[in-house]
Amino acid sequence: MKFNPKKDISPKYLFLALSIICIALLTLSLFSDGFMTMLRGLFGKVITPMQEGVSNVGEWVEDRFLVFGDVKELRQENETLKKRNEELEDQIARNQAELTELAELRQLYSLDQMYPDYNKTAARIFSVEDSGWFNEFYINKGLNDGIYEDCNVLYDGGLLGIVVESYDDYARVRAIIDDRSKVTASIGQNGALCTVEGSLSTYQDGYLTAVDIAKDAKVSVGDRVITSNVSDRFLYGLTIGYVTEILPDPNNLTVTARIKPAVDFSSVRDVLVITDRKQEVSY
């Protein structure tokens, strides 16, 4: 026979049993303080550490959530700052490029004012030969812009070179430091004729040479060397450079001068091309 507590235990007996337990505990509490103290101590040793452990776990979990929240917020702030830093770096780079371009435009303007009698147009270099110097290069303007073969090219403080080939939208320029270049020039107080020879080798040492200068020509260190009016390809009066040294020749009839070029050929970007050509200009 199966026992069923709901049917077999009468409620009055259950009530009676609970009443007896309560009376017994009350009596013990009145007459046995030691037992209750022991009972409370037992509960304190068992329950209190459990409560503290649960409390500590709760605090640890709460701290972790706070830390995770802080980390997430810090990561978001870090990403925002990184993006802002990149934007500022880009802006600084643009500003520096604009300042460089402005300086170059000012330089071209000053150069333009040095030779007001000639028509000119600005052009940008887009390709350079692999010699390490700007001895031969290409510019982004050509026949469509009025640039033809033999147009003279200016940069920095004077003559840079000459156009040797021109196409619709670009042209090839040969600088005066190129080994193939020769420029008929005037030197000294009385404008003595000479030939400035291009040479990458001597330019690396900081100079070009002006040869075939008459021995009795009045030439001094510091004199300006310019293109001569008898040159068949270069316009008159363009600055080539300045005399740094005068050397006697073995024939005892001529002297050679070392010239410091007016142009820095190590870094060139924008140039001025004189659209007038020597054969079209009368003096």
Describe this protein's structure.
The protein has 283 residues and is α+β, with helices and mostly antiparallel strands. Helices cover 40% and strands 27% of the residues. The protein is built from 4 helices and 12 strands; from the N terminus they run αααβββββββαβββββ. It has helices at residues 5-8, 11-31, 33-114, 200-204, and strands spanning 120-128, 136-139, 152-155, 158-166, 171-175, 182-187, 192-197, 208-214, 224-227, 239-248, 254-261, 270-274. The chain has a 6-stranded antiparallel β-barrel with strand order 1-2-5-4-3-12. It has a 6-stranded antiparallel β-barrel with strand order 6-7-8-11-10-9. A hairpin with a 7-residue loop joins strand 1 (120-128) and strand 2 (136-139). The longest helix has 82 residues, at 33-114. The chain is rod-shaped and about 145 Å long. The model has no long low-confidence stretch (mean pLDDT 82).
